[in-house]
Amino acid sequence: MADIKEECRRIFSNNRRKVRDLQYTVPSPSAYPYQWLWDSCFHAIILVHFKTGDAKKEILSLLSKQFQNGMIPHMIYWKKYKKTNFPRIKWGKEETSTITQPPMLAFAVWQIFQKEKDKLFLRSVYPHLYHFYRYLLTERDPHENHLIGIMNSDESGEDNSPRFDLPLGLPPVQTLKENIKRRLKLVAQNIECKFDAPFCMRNFFWVKDISFNSIMVANLAFLAKLAGELGNSEDAAYFIKVAEDISSAMRQFMREDGVFYSTYGEEYKKIKVKTWAIFAPLFAKILKPQEAKQLVNRHLLNKKEFWTNFPIPTTSLDEPSFDPQGYWRGPTWIATNWFVYKGLLNYGFRDIAEEIKKSSTGLIQKSGFREYFNPQTGEGLGAENFTWGGLVIDMDGFGTINE
User: Fold this and answer.
1) Of 378, 376, 375, which is closest to residue 313 (Cα–Cα)?
2) Residue 64 gets which letter from DSSP?
3) Which among 45, 16, 41 has a CA at the least distance from the CA of 28?
C-alpha cells in the first residue's frame, strides 16, 4: 500500500491544474483533460489522505460553476486542449455541460470536515450544497413520487451502461460508436428543450436510476449532518425526511425478488438488467440485514454473475450485454468497487469487503492506475494514470461511511 500511495501522490501532482485562483484535478491528462463532477468528489475523498487544502480546492472549483437554479454541471471546460481525443461536446453552453452527475458532494465535504472541523469552509460551501440537492429534489422529481430522475445516461456517470439500453432504444449487443451516436442525439434533444428537466425527461429520456438514487439517499444523510454542524436543525430534519421518502419510494417502485432495478418513463417500468448498481442500496443502508445477506449470497458471491477472478464486473456475466472490455458493460472499475466495499461494511460483511479491497489493490499492482480492468484477467484497460485508483487508499481500514 505504501508504494500505491506514493504512485497515487505522483499521479495527482501531475494531474493537477490551476486556473486563476482555482485548482482541480483531471482524471487522466491524455484521455480526460477537463473537470468532472463525481470525479472531483472522488478526488477530494482521496486528497483528504494527503493534503486537506487540496481537497477543499477541488470542491471550490466545482462550486464556482454552479448554475443559478442550483444544478452543478458534470463537466467544466476550463481550458481548450488541442492534443486530446476527448470531444468538446456542444452542450448549449460554452464553458460547461448542461447536465449533472451522481451527487457525491455532501459525502466529500463531510470527509473534508471530519479531518479539520473547519466550520469557515463548511459555511462557505453549505449554501451551494443546499441549492444543488434542492434542485435535484424538485426539478428532477416533477411528479413528487420521491425518486430522482436523470435526463441523460451520462448523468449516471456510467455513460453506456446496459441499464440504459432500453430507454435509449438500443439492443443489448451494440458498438460504442452506436451508443455515442444515440447519446449525442439525446444531447441535441436536450438543447432543443432548453434543458428544462421535467419537459426533457417526459419527452426524451426519463430514468430513475438505482445507483443515482442510492447515492442521493446516502448523501442526504451526510448533508443533514453538515446542516447540524452549522446549527441548521430544520434543514437537517428536512434532509433526513426526504432521504426516508426516497428510500420508501425505491422499495415501492424499484424492488422485485430482492433486487432493486432502475425504472424508466412515467409508468416506472423496471429495467431488469443486473449491473453492479443492484448493490448500490448497500451504500445507502436501504436494505434490511436479511435482505442484504440474501443479495450478497445470491448475486455478489455468485460466480456466474459477479464473483469473477477480479470482482466486481460492472455487468453480470449472465447478461447478454456483458463484455469484459466494453467500458461500462463488464469491466471492473475501482470506484464501483469502493461503493460496494463501503456498503458491505455497513452490514458487517468485513471478510467480503476485505476481498474486494485486496482484489482492487491487486489490480493496481498488476496493471497500474488504469481506468478500468478486465474482470476475468485483470488486464488494465482505458486511460492511463487514471485517478480513481486512488480510492483503494480510502479502503485501507474498516471505516464505515459514517466515520
Assistant:
1) 375
2) T
3) 16
Are 36 and 101 spatial neighbours (Cβ–Cβ below 8 Å)? yes
Enumerate residues 6+ apart whose C-beta is below 8 A from 6. none
For the stretch 143-192, pLDDT in tens is 999 999 999 999 999 999 999 999 999 999 999 999 999 999 999 999 99
Question: Residue 314's Cα: distance from chain center in Å?
Answer: 13
Rounded Cα gap, residues 79 and 29, in angstroms: 12
**Residue 351 is placed in which grid cell?**
471478510
Please tell me whether residue 208 adopts helix, strand or coil conformation: strand
- Contact (Cβ atoms closer than 8 angstroms) between residue 27 and residue 373: no
Cα–Cα distances (Å) from 128 to 31, 61, 68, in that order, read 29, 12, 10
Backbone φ and ψ for 317, nearest 5 degrees, come out as -60, -25
Q: In whole angstroms, what is the distance from residue 41 CA to residue 44 CA?
A: 5
Its CATH architecture, for the domain 2-394, is Alpha/alpha barrel (1.50)
